[in-house]
Design a protein that fits this description.
The complex is a heterodimer. By secondary structure, chain A is mostly helical. Chain A has helices at about 1-25, 35-65, 75-110, 120-125, 130-155, 155-170, 180-200, 205-220, 230-235, 240-245, 265-270, 290-295, 295-315. Chain B is mostly beta strands. The longest helix of chain B is centred in the first third of the chain and has 17 residues, at about 5-25. The chains are: A mainly alpha, B mainly beta.
Chain lengths: ~325, ~425
């Protein structure tokens, strides 16, 4: 099954590349980008698979035990747009095309100064012979940094002005995971890039694990009354755990449950809430209504306006 | 065997058969190993050519693209560009011998005399020239964008580098470590080989192979092949040049003498690099299909086999000697294990080997002779055979004494912070 899934993924991305993308890039005289584009396409197809898997797993759960029922799901449709843009297009493209050029210039400079950015495996040689373990260590390390990025998103007012879009959603579903301002996504990519320079980035050779990780992130936003029990709540972020972070009383600077994947960070840094019976309504009461109800474009403009207002007040 | 024969006679008949069976090469020894670099999956697939099964999968850190046999015939170099790492692998067992840290090694090659080791870094836009004996960095030349593939002149004095971002073919003087000239060969040039005193360049942004006269530093002509022309590869007998094209997904066959198009094989999946097996079959990576193709050049028939994502560099080990491709009437010497011919081929320039032996040990010339395989141009077997099969034993590469050559660097103002650590790829 796994073999079939991965073979299907490579066949689909290969077909798309040969039938559509490569002839177009050839016509545009951009064949030198084609290998970066292939990587982007691989991720885009994997992103599509992630959405399919998330839908197959989360949608039945949401139908089975929803926390909330809504007569009108228009706000959810906006999140579908976010998910499609991010999983299929925007994030991988940012990573592979924009950052690749910057990375090249940076590495050239480092090499001239006789510096080589190490990878985690080179820092911990045992990991060289244990690639799966190495990948999981990367996941833990990156999740730790993600926890702190999330803390920063809430801790800096200018950053929360962008992050407010994510929290304004009052109809939170598994689609809401990708609901972010585009500038917030760029900051996240730069954050990730900085970590990559410190420890490298994990190789993309474990699509199944990536699939599972993204599924957990989607599930944590799902509109489902589900908690993982005393131990499970401390091992993996559950829909209950993350819903509390999205609760109306938790938005802004006084949030709880920041962890993205592993709740251990909230445990360690005293920001965890372990009340397993709490499933509060979501949303940010102080956020403008457009952030909750507007379409993708209006939300992007509103987010940028809020961001500008905060910066102006600071200066 | 007659079942009615008396036991003693049966024994007499069986024993020679058993003895003959025992004398046959056992297990994998009879097979070649095919190394395939899965650039999109951070691994190297090693295939047993007889059973057509995966013999081993070597995990690497990030993104392997090209590979090359060291002149000593014992070290297979696998460049993991995104991990800033070079793996040194035992080509017979596919076991990692050691790892070397090196900045973004993309394409790599040894000069035919074994004196220089050159690395193109596509991403950082630099060409590094090493002393092959000591692996000390001699020069790091900043080039216009995306130095991609390379080819050497048979006299080892020049290396030619395609510049994927700027339509250029750059000639570099290896002794003086400076650029000689650059010529516009077409959009996004990729593979390049030296062939009959000409350079053949696959032009990926076009549908042609550009022929460059290196003596005059000018484009002589263009040969239309198929859209997305990528690498160019000579058959071991030099009578055919194979030109891969990624967009039209085809291999165009050019006459080795006239460079006239004499055929075309459509090969879905984006054919990229190739390597020739001792039986004459071509092993080709299909970049967009996560597969390789095994082509019988006599018929053009092919079969495919699944490997990892985005397979790029490929190498058959042991690399076959430059003999005629097996046809309906293969000569005995066309089979595996034969040493390369000592005499130069008629269509290759009669180049005298360098007076100084190459950095080879006395490895049997029947095995890997340091032919720059993977996607590096194959040079005349006579030259390689003579230069690398040194009679007097010399210390194996790269364990010899380090030399301290003058460092030439493209940005003099950056010379000061340069320390000795990265000037040497290895010193053991």
């Amino acid at each position: 099954m796994l073999d079939w899934l991965l073979d299907t993924q490579s066949r689909l991305s290969g077909w798309l590349l040969q039938a559509v993308v490569e002839p177009a890039f050839y016509a545009l005289g951009l064949m030198d980008l084609i290998e970066d584009i292939q990587q982007w396409l691989d991720f885009a197809v994997l992103g599509l698979l992630q959405l399919v898997v998330a839908w197959l797993v989360c949608r039945p759960l949401e139908a089975w035990r929803p926390v909330e029922r809504w007569p009108d799901r228009a706000a959810v449709r906006t999140d579908v747009v976010y998910a499609l843009i991010n999983r299929i297009g925007l994030l991988p493209l940012l990573a592979f095309v924009l950052l690749a050029g910057l990375q090249g210039a940076w590495e050239s400079l480092l090499t001239d100064y006789d510096l080589l950015p190490p990878t985690l495996e080179q820092l911990v040689p045992w990991l060289l012979d244990h690639p799966v373990a190495a990948f999981l260590v990367y996941v833990v390390v990156l999740d730790f940094f993600e926890y702190w990025r999330h803390r920063a998103q809430h801790g800096f007012r200018w950053w929360y002005a962008l992050h407010a879009i994510h929290h304004a959603q009052r109809q939170m579903t598994f689609w809401s995971d990708d609901r972010n301002h585009i500038l917030d996504d760029v900051l996240a990519a730069l954050w990730f890039g900085a970590i990559a320079l410190l420890i490298g980035v994990p190789p993309a050779q474990f699509p199944l694990i990536i699939l599972l990780l993204r599924l957990v992130e989607s599930l944590s936003h799902a509109n489902v009354r589900l908690q993982f029990g005393w131990l499970g709540e401390r091992l993996l972020v559950s829909p209950r755990f993350h819903r509390l972070h999205h609760g109306e009383l938790s938005a802004g600077q006084y949030g709880r449950n920041y962890a993205v994947l592993l709740p251990v960070w909230d445990w360690a840094f005293g920001t965890g809430d372990w009340h397993r019976d709490r499933f509060p309504p979501t949303g940010d009461p102080e956020a403008p209504a457009v952030l909750a109800r507007g379409g993708w474009w209006r939300q992007q403009v509103a987010g940028l306006t809020l961001f500008g207002n905060v910066l102006r007040k600071r200066s | 065997m007659n079942p009615q024969a008396p036991p003693s006679r049966r024994v007499r008949l069986v024993l020679p058969v058993l003895a003959a069976l025992l004398a046959l090469p056992q297990g994998r020894a009879a097979a070649d190993l095919i190394y395939v670099l899965n650039s999109g999956e951070a691994s190297v697939t090693v295939i047993d050519s007889v059973t057509r099964t995966e013999f081993r999968r070597i995990p690497v850190l990030r993104e392997p693209h090209h590979l090359l046999m060291a002149p000593n015939g014992r070290d297979l170099l696998i460049a993991d560009s995104a991990a800033n790492e070079m793996l040194i692998v035992n080509p017979d067992t596919a076991e990692i011998i050691r790892r070397e840290r090196i900045s973004n090694p993309y394409h790599l090659g040894f000069s035919p005399d074994g004196k220089y080791f050159v690395i193109n870094s596509l991403r950082r836009g630099q060409v590094d020239i090493y002393d092959a004996a000591s692996m000390a960095l001699l020069a790091r030349l900043s080039t216009p964008t995306q130095p991609s593939h390379m080819a050497f002149s048979p006299d080892s004095k020049r290396v030619f580098v395609t510049l994927q971002g700027t339509r250029g073919l750059l000639a570099i003087d290896l002794d003086e470590r400076r650029a000689l000239w650059q010529v516009d060969v077409g959009p996004q040039p990729a593979g390049v080989i030296w062939h009959n005193n000409r350079l053949l360049v696959g032009v990926m942004g076009g549908d042609y192979v550009t022929v460059v006269d290196p003596a005059e530093a000018r484009v002589e002509r263009q040969i239309t092949t198929a859209r997305g022309s990528h690498t160019v590869w000579p058959a071991p007998d030099g009578k055919t040049i194979y030109a891969t094209s990624r967009v039209d997904s085809a291999i165009t066959l050019l006459d080795g003498e006239t460079l006239q198009v004499k055929g075309r094989w459509d090969l879905p999946g984006g054919p990229d690099d190739m390597s020739v097996a001792p039986d004459g079959k071509l092993w080709v990576t299909l970049r967009w299909a996560a597969r390789i193709a095994i082509i019988d050049p006599a018929t053009g028939q092919y079969e495919t086999m699944r490997v990892g994502r985005s397979p790029h560099g490929i190498m058959v080990h042991p690399t076959p000697p430059p003999q005629p491709i097996a046809t309906a009437d293969p000569s005995p010497s066309a089979r595996a294990g034969e040493p390369p011919r000592a005499e130069p081929r008629a269509e290759t320039p009669a180049v005298q080997p360098a007076a100084t032996p190459g950095p080879s040990s006395g490895t049997s010339p029947g095995t890997s002779l340091g032919l720059p395989s993977g996607s590096v141009s194959l040079l005349p077997g006579s030259l390689l055979g003579t230069a690398y099969a040194a009679e007097a034993p010399v210390p194996p590469w790269p364990e010899r004494q380090a030399v301290e050559p003058p460092l030439v660097i493209s940005q003099p103002h950056l010379l000061a912070p340069y320390n000795s650590l990265s000037r040497r790829l290895t010193l053991r």
